[in-house]
Amino acid sequence: LTNRLSKALKNITGKGKLTEANMNEMLREVRMSLLEADVNYRVVKDFIEHVKIKAMGVEVMSSLNPGQMVVKIVHDEIVELLGTQEQGLNYKTAGITTVMMVGLQGTGKTTAAAKIANVIRKKQSRKPLLVACDLIRPAAVEQLKTLGASIDVEVFSLGIETPALTTAKKALEYAQEQGYDTVIFDTAGRLHIDEELMQELADIKAAVHPDDILLTVDAMTGQDIVNVAQSFHDQLAVTGLVLTKLDGDARGGGVLSVRAITQVPVKFVGLGEKIDDLDIFYPERMADRILGMGDIMTLVEQAQDKMDMEVSQKSAKRMMSGQFTLEDMLEQFRQLKKMGSLGGMMKLIPGMSQMAGKIDEAKTDKQMKMFEAIILSMTKEERQNPDILKASRKNRIAAGSGTKVSDINQLINRYEKTKVAMKQMGAMANGGKMPNMKG
Ligand code: GDP
Ligand code: MG
Asked: For the SRP54-type proteins GTP-binding domain, which residue ranges apply (predicted)?
């Protein structure tokens, strides 16, 4: 967690529903954090508005503070915006699949083209051909050839004198003749968007009908990525993203901006200069990274635990009013197990530490497991109304759980006692009045 965020988390207290007032501070921090991560300011603005609407009036789980609740919602929304864990190339069912790499100069098109060719050849038994259509960058053709040689993938090139469009067309014919099933076109980039480049790319697109147009997005990219992505998308209708250089320090918020604009999935992630540094995209991890919350998962998990706790508090209330079922008992066993050993717990309770030593841990543990197995072998109806458990049902359950009928009787005995104890506790908590006598 960034310092600022964790500080805000501590400062915001209060209960009840999320309101403008109790969300504002946290949302301000989230906003700053996203801007720091290079998410475009307009995208941030929309995002915060969206979260506000979504979160307004949401009940804060009683064990969380509103700040934590907001962070959880923000995290989930970023994951949503980043899209699902996708997905490979859009392969044609028959014929040659064509893929076009596009993006600004230096973002990693050529590297990604080779990485993708390598992975689909090795892992998907494809027969890829790489095509050198970047004639602008000095030595671009050589770069691709070197990469191709290192991964045993042929590189098609007609030299830098031939126009890129001609090379692209000839490459397709060549692929047909040679039986290649996937052709990846590495194209030229520019430092900035310009008309000439866009025209060249549009012409290649028209000639080779790409099944995928992959826009490379450098994780280090800044605010202006929105304009770049918008231009590429407007003119070429990209179908996927390759997020490159994620091995660096950058939080990579630019991808959130690009996703917001293009809505197309991140298909690959670049994690280094080497050929094997390619991965699929993990939205959860990326959301953590963008928020600068390495330990957000811990937070969310804690929230989950607390939620479980709330469930058991609710059921405790119900139980104390006399509605105690075997399902509740199962839940109790599970909670106990989660909290660790019974003896260990008792040591923590003043006045009980002596008793703790007297508990036979192993035996208790074994018994709890057995009871659990028995309850799990029951139908829902049986769990909720153990009175219906007659001999034939008990025989079935014993067989199902690998226990004896006497074990089941022992469990029911224990259940009856607990139920009575619960009711008495409830009565005491109600100031001596039985719950069902309340006016
Ligand atoms: P292009 O101009 O878009 O074709 O970009 P290149 O593929 O030539 O890459 C530009 C530079 O970035 C090269 O030095 C690459 O080695 C480097 N590069 C590409 N992808 C990655 C990556 O995922 N991580 C790192 N650290 N460097 C990368
Ligand atoms: Mg290149």
From this structure: 265-278
